[in-house]
Write a structure and sequence with these properties.
Length: 1442
């Protein structure tokens, strides 16, 4: 499954096969520079390849998207990873632009830009925006729109380009009118609310009063204190139970209507008659000005003029006093003074808005709430509706787009060097986003009944449709195709499985193998699959077309050598085993995919594969098979369980993790056997042999290594990072159910060169890269593993030499070692580690040749092991991540994303919740349990809602949706549906045939649903689907029992089903009237799933930049990340979630290097982009708001910082409520800022709430709690309440003393502060005594009240946000000091325990020898996995979140 529009968080991918070293230049560059760097991301992966992703990307998303080509550039695998990467950029230059009626102005351009891009700039500029039909001329020569500037002869620095008005055509006139309409509506948010044209909402400017960049320069620090109103709204204060909805979309004063015209529409006299065409008339417009003047306008080839037509009489002659204007705006400015005044003001406001508030997003984002918007007359919208926009694609001349040809041609583009790859990726991305938009429009038209079926005689659920060269089918089991697999349930699951397959094969990107453009749309209860059409497929029968695979689930099977050759290239990266099956004649047929995968050669000669629903192996935990027993780990948890269909597959992330886990096992076993051989040679005692042999045997039987064996830890130069499951070294208790595996020291190890990057909520976002060799680059390379497992280095050498040679030069004993290890871990090869899966095992109807019985048994065992690995390793690993807060989901989408990253399917949600419920540390996982329950309930409700909606006719849709929401969320016990009265009986029968919607009868059965029935259904759905016992009979009981919020449930169900509701305060708890009426349901949107193409080269630069930063080269890292930003912009355009992650990282680096204004500017862009591309209340947006608040504070914009923090807190309250670990960080920030502006009482409310949350989720003895106590003590000190201050500081001191010892610097600091507070308290008491004793004659000593200074507040803010600055003059002189400071800081950051007890990590070590001269600042960031390496006494740190 993927989230809506694959939101994804943009996971940071890893180096793929494309080698940066070969690239000579980058496109679209703005300045000349030459960067030479040792590539830390080159293919050898021996460098420091630690990765960090800001606070992580989102998303987003499916890791398959970032998997790269496993075969494409294999020959470059030998390249040295020490190659230089030279990036050469062309210099930009300035040209002068002369437009009619304006002064010439300068424009900075880049040689790679096209002339068309200058056109776009001119159409956006305030003084030239009203022109659309013009050419640019240099010395009288017209420039070609599609020419690159560098190819134009004579164009140089200072050249003058003239804007020359051109004659109109009908097309140009339409474009002009559309553009003027867009300018008039540029501040109107209705397109964003209606979810059209990739518009979406942003509210940042409401809180920053415009662009932060300017205000940052204007305001002086400190002058602001007097005018700050710090009081937050009541509902934001800690402890408030109110969750109002209206503040979600605050009023933006810019959106107040500024009317320029009352009406602008096409005239009823269109099109012009023949005689007028010959006078140059193109079309007629009808306009009503603000002054109420009704005019008719002719658009002619020469421009626009008033004619003499009225509503009822046609007179095309020019009106009196009329004059010709080339632009409609110029004409309207002449006839309407109000238009002239308001249009000018509107354009001023438009250009003042941040560009990111105006740019279209790549995929449509829908808002689940909207205000009531007045419906205004709009000619363009009307025209779009009439024409269905079919074929109205401005930039494509001629007919409708041939989507398949476009999708495949872009894949065929050359990719030899960087400019070519950029061009290819940009084309692929653009076509994909256009295709997704067109497919979504088409799917909605199909369900709304606006498209004629290609088989109209069939029953509605069996109908298929073609619209705009896209094929649409419904998610029903037609012709009993899926009868044996689960009927309609299987037909509903198949499209998403197929999409996951398409995503995986597209990511591997093998030349010559083609997949179909695929989009899955859920709309109004129906699932629609939209696919591009293989040329010629509609002219042939399927039996004739399919030359590879099976059309009947394995009864008849065919194969084809070319397909085998192409699919063989994908088998290694996708872990698919080459295998034989029997056809109808009992003859073996070779396949390199599942049997359902069909190969069809189109009329265009391309080799297409489709029906990729079984790309990944079956999940035996949900596939009971007679006579087959699962592993004990699975059985203990009640598996196998009956599932709704037999298409349950394992996720690609799980396959990767499982293979990596087995590889560790393989290396360990080889090492143990080599040690045994060595012992034999040295004539050691037999006892050692026995133990080793026993060890080896036990290894092969268990799923994970036993606790007694020390598995190598990952450290600095490790190309693989393995997330550990709950290890014995970490004091985490587990319940009995995980006993067999809770000791596994290495759980899902990732692919080579992988470091878990932290996403928006701190969840690990592993990006995966396919191995170039089947033997898997050792995930242990560069570790200190050699010291932990004797013989491991030898084992690695052996594995390498076996992989490199034919094996002839290796002694038989060593070969036997590898053979035994291969057998034990289930490798398909006997000479090297190579695990692959056969997806056809357990498929009904598929038979295998007799000679492959042994192999089939091996494969069955492998599948059972993988299923057991999921429940015994991955689920505990996910829970451990949540427990140590490296994974911090805030809502259903981020929880789903987090479990997906561990390879856990959502159908395991019930199992995960039970696991959490049985943990001794359950209290520290309460937020996960609550979010999980909320997700489970809303998913069950979504399943019921899907079938509920299918029985509703269009006219009753809003009544049905509001009735469902009342039954789901309203406390009103007798929710009654309001049936649309006007068409209940009389005319319905006559309409029945015409108005059918797919699969649905138009009945009113939906109206009989009651709240108790719905909740009963939800409980039974939870039991049947998730195997979770939900003991709830009503919404109030559920909310009470699980501590949920109705607002959160409303948000979750609306986002999952596409409902848009009116933004107002709903009285959910009223027992006298239902919460929703049909007027409250504004719209229902589609939920869209599609492939998300990636920008691979940009990722390389991003990674290289990260690696540089981690080595301490901040400036070089910054340059590389700027370059990555350039490349991202090149591929994705200006707006994309991955660009958001890039900007966040840049802002962080700017802040660290002391450039606060630049940090503010970049973070502002990141916030805007997150709001626009992910949603205004997405958890990632909340995080971005927090970062921006910090930079605002650092820039002296205190009131803005507070507003942003209050906004973040409000959003978090709506999304997940107050009881969440992240809320402690947010409240600490708010409390500190309030302390800084001397609002002590308010500050205490937030800081004490933060203290309570920290105590709950980190334990009362945690160092975070100690820091919280200190912050509270500081505020009490400022209030001169020394007794309370002392109390809190004592608590902090006790924690420090117990956790890090009395000698620790933190403990000493706390002790000093305690002494100071005691002195102050004594002085105050003396003074008070003096006053009591002597009254007004008392001689009072002046008391020291320390008002906080901004620098100390900022220092504390940096500490709690995980940023520390360590001034370093030179490594050699201050190595010891640094290590001490780092230890101190780590203890400050980490929960419980001294630094020595912390896990080791990957990154650079501080070496006592100074290797590269002076460094001014070294900066570390946010909750690092850090610790002292006991062997070498080095310090390791990781930027988890820079």
């Amino acid at each position: 499954m993927v989230s809506k529009t694959d939101n994804i968080p943009a996971s940071v991918p890893n180096c793929n096969t494309v080698d940066l070293a070969r690239d000579s230049e980058t496109a679209n560059s703005k300045e000349s520079s030459k960067i030479a760097l040792k590539d830390p991301c080159a293919r050898g992966h021996n460098g420091d390849t630690a990765v960090m992703n800001g606070d992580g990307g989102h998303d987003q998303a499916e890791d398959a998207d970032s998997k790269q080509d496993g075969s494409a550039d294999a020959e470059s695998g030998e390249d040295s990873n020490e190659q230089e990467v030279i990036v050469i950029q062309d210099t930009g230059f300035t040209v002068k632009i002369q437009a009619p009626g304006t002064e010439p102005f300068d424009l900075q351009v880049s040689p790679q830009e096209m002339v068309q891009e200058i056109h776009q700039v001119l159409m956006d500029r305030e003084d030239t925006c009203h022109r659309t039909c013009f050419s640019l001329q240099l010395d009288g020569n017209v420039l070609d729109n599609f020419a690159e500037l560098k190819s134009i002869e004579g164009l140089q620095e200072g050249s003058l380009l003239k804007v020359v008005e051109e004659p109109y055509t009908v097309r140009e006139a339409r474009i002009h009118v559309r553009h003027i309409r867009d300018l008039l509506k540029s501040l109107d948010p209705s397109d964003a609310y209606n979810g059209v044209d990739c518009n979406s909402l942003s509210f940042l400017s409401v809180f920053t009063d415009g662009d932060l960049g300017d205000t940052g320069k204007r305001k002086k620090k400190g002058n602001e204190l007097e005018q700050i109103d710090c009081t937050p709204p009541e509902h934001i204060l800690p402890g408030s139970k109110e969750r109002p909805l209206v503040p979600l979309q605050p009023q933006n004063k810019d959106w107040k209507p500024m009317q320029c015209l009352k009406v602008l529409t096409m005239s009823g006299w269109n099109p012009p008659p023949g005689n007028r065409k010959m006078h140059g008339d193109l079309m007629y417009l009808y306009i009503v000005t603000v002054e109420d003047r009704h005019v008719s306008i002719t658009a002619s080839t020469r421009g626009f003029y008033l004619n003499q037509s009225t509503t009822y009489t046609f007179n095309p002659k020019p009106a009196n006093h009329s004059f010709l204007s080339h632009s409609l705006v110029e004409l309207l400015s002449q006839i309407s003074p109000a238009f002239k005044k308001n249009f000018t003001a509107l354009q001023k406001k438009r250009v003042q808005r941040h560009p990111f508030e105006r740019i279209a997003t790549p995929f449509q984002v829908f808002s689940w709430t909207a205000p009531q918007i007045d419906h205004a007359m709009d000619c363009v919208r009307a025209e779009d509706a009439y024409t269905s926009r079919l074929g109205y694609e401005e930039h494509i001349p001629g007919q409708t787009r041939d989507w398949n040809e476009e999708l495949q041609t872009t894949r065929e583009l050359s990719r030899k060097n960087l400019p070519e790859r950029l061009l290819r990726e940009r084309a692929i991305f653009k076509v994909h986003s256009d295709f997704a938009a067109a497919a979504t429009r088409g799917a909605m038209a199909v369900i709304d009944g606006n498209v004629m079926a290609i088989n109209p005689g069939e029953e509605t659920r069996m109908q298929m449709f073609i619209w705009n060269n896209i094929f649409f089918s419904l998610g029903f089991d037609v012709r009993d195709h899926y009868r044996e697999l689960g009927g309609d349930a299987a037909a509903h699951a198949a499209p998403t499985n197929d999409l996951n397959g398409v995503r995986a094969y597209s990511a591997v990107d093998v030349e010559g193998l083609y997949t179909l453009g695929t989009v899955v749309v859920d709309y109004r209860g129906y699932r629609v699959t939209a696919q591009s059409i293989i040329p010629g497929i509609l002219e042939r029968e399927q039996e004739q077309s399919v030359i590879y695979g099976s059309i009947d689930f394995g009864k008849t099977v065919v194969s084809h050598p070319k397909y085998l050759e192409l699919l063989e290239k994908t088998s290694r990266p996708l872990k698919v085993q080459h295998h034989a099956v029997l056809n109808e004649n009992d003859a073996p047929v070779d396949l390199c995919s599942s049997v359902e995968c069909k190969g069809i050669i189109g009329n265009d000669g391309r080799h297409y594969i489709l029906d990729l629903l079984r790309t990944f192996p079956p999940d035996l935990n949900f596939l009971p098979v007679e006579g087959e027993e699962l592993a004990p780990e699975s059985q203990k948890l009640g598996f196998p369980r009956q599932h709704r269909h037999r298409l349950a597959c394992l996720r690609q992330e799980l396959i990767e993790a499982f293979v990596e886990h087995r590889y560790l096992l393989f290396m360990k076993m080889a090492a143990l056997q080599l040690m045994q051989q060595k012992a034999n040679k040295d004539n050691k005692t037999a006892a050692l042999q026995d133990t080793s042999a026993a060890d080896v045997q036990s290894e092969s039987k268990t799923q994970a290594p036993k606790a007694s064996e020390k598995v190598p830890e990952t450290t600095a130069a490790s190309p693989t990072s393995s997330e550990s499951t709950l290890t014995p070294e970490e004091p985490v208790e587990l319940n009995a159910t995980t006993a067999p595996d809770n000791s596994s020291p290495e759980a899902p190890a990732r692919q080579n060169a992988e470091i878990p990057t932290s996403n928006t909520n701190g969840t690990h976002e592993p990006s995966t890269v396919e191995r170039q060799n089947g033997e898997c680059d050792s995930p242990l390379e560069g570790k200190e593993a050699d010291e932990n497992i004797p013989g491991l280095a030898q084992a690695k050498e052996l594995a390498k030499s076996l992989a490199a040679e034919d094996g002839s030069g290796i002694d038989p004993k060593s070969r036997e070692v590898v053979l035994n290890a291969c057998k034990a871990v289930g490798s398909i090869s006997n000479t090297s580690f190579d695990i692959r899966f056969n997806s056809d095992i357990f498929s009904p109807g598929v038979r295998f040749p007799d000679d492959s019985t042994e192999d089939i048994q091996k494969q069955k065992q492998l599948l059972k092991d993988a299923a057991a690995f999921l429940v015994s390793c991955q689920i505990p690993s996910f829970v451990k991540d949540c427990l140590d807060h490296s994974s911090l989901p805030m809502d259903g989408a981020t929880l789903t994303e987090a479990i997906h990253q561990h390879g856990i399917n959502v159908r395991y949600l019930g199992t995960v919740l039970e696991f959490v419920d049985n943990m001794p540390a359950k209290a520290q996982l309460e937020h996960i349990y609550r979010i999980g329950i909320s997700e489970l309930i809303t998913r069950c409700a979504k399943h019921i809602f899907k079938t509920y909606l299918q029985g509703v006719e269009l006219s009753a849709l809003s009544a049905a949706v509001s009735h469902f929401l009342n039954c789901f969320l309203s406390s009103f016990p007798d929710a009654v549906a309001h049936l649309p009265a006007d068409e209940l009986v009389s005319r319905r029968k006559s309409r029945k045939r015409r108005n059918r919607v797919p699969g649905g009868g138009d009945n009113t059965a939906w109206a009989s649903l009651t709240p108790s029935e719905l909740w009963k259904n939800i409980a039974s759905e939870a039991q049947n689907y998730y195997h979770f016992n939900l003991q709830c009979e009503s919404v109030d009981q559920t909310v009470e029992k699980y501590g949920l919020q109705k607002t959160t449930l409303l948000r979750e169900i609306s986002i999952k089903t596409g409902i848009q509701i009116l933004i107002k305060e709903y009285s959910f708890d009223s027992r006298h009237k239902p919460a929703f009426t049909e007027e409250d349901i504004l719209n229902i949107f589609p939920i869209v799933k599609h492939v998300n193409p990636k920008a691979s080269d940009a990722f390389h630069f991003f990674q290289s930049g990260q690696a540089k930063v981690q080595q301490g080269f901040l400036k070089e890292g910054c340059e590389l990340i700027n370059e990555a930003l350039n490349l991202f912009n090149n591929v994705y355009g200006a707006m994309h979630v991955e660009i958001c992650a890039c900007l966040r990282l840049l802002a962080r680096l700017n802040y660290i290097m002391g450039d606060h204004p630049e940090a503010l500017s970049n973070q502002q862009k990141a916030v805007l982009m997150s709001e626009r591309a992910l949603g205004i209340e997405h958890p990632n947006t909340i995080q971005e708001y927090m970062h921006l608040a910090l930079y605002c504070f650092a820039n002296g914009q205190l009131s803005t910082a507070l507003k942003l923090l209050y906004r973040a807190r409000y959003l978090m309250l709506v999304v997940c409520g107050e009881d969440h670990p992240e809320m402690a960080l947010l409240d600490s920030n708010i409390g500190l800022v309030l302390h800084g502006v001397m609002e002590y009482d308010l500050s205490l409310r937030f800081l004490e709430n933060a203290l309570a949350i920290h105590s709950k989720y980190h334990g009362p003895r945690s160092l975070k709690v100690a820091l919280s106590h200190h912050l509270v003590a500081r505020v009490y000190e400022s209030k001169a309440e020394f007794r309370s201050a002392l109390q809190h500081e004592k608590e902090g001191y006790t924690i420090y003393k117990n956790q890090v010892g009395e000698a620790h610097e933190k403990t000493k600091e706390s002790s000093e502060y305690l002494k100071y507070l005691t002195q102050q308290a004594v002085a105050l008491q003396r003074t008070m005594n003096e006053i009591y004793k002597n009254g007004s004659n008392a001689s009072i000593m002046p008391l020291k009240f320390t008002a906080p200074n901004m620098a100390s507040v900022l220092e504390q803010l940096n500490i709690i946000n995980g940023i520390i600055f360590i001034p370093l003059r030179c490594f050699c002189t201050v190595g010891a000091v640094v290590a001490q400071r780092l230890r101190l800081w780590v203890t400050d950051q980490k929960v419980g325990g001294s630094s020595a007890a912390l896990p080791r990590c990957h990154c650079w070590a501080l070496d006592p020898i100074c290797s590269r001269g002076a460094v001014s600042w070294l900066t570390l960031h946010s909750d690092p996995l850090a610790g002292i390496c006991e062997k070498k006494k080095e310090f390791h740190c990781i930027y988890a979140n820079v």
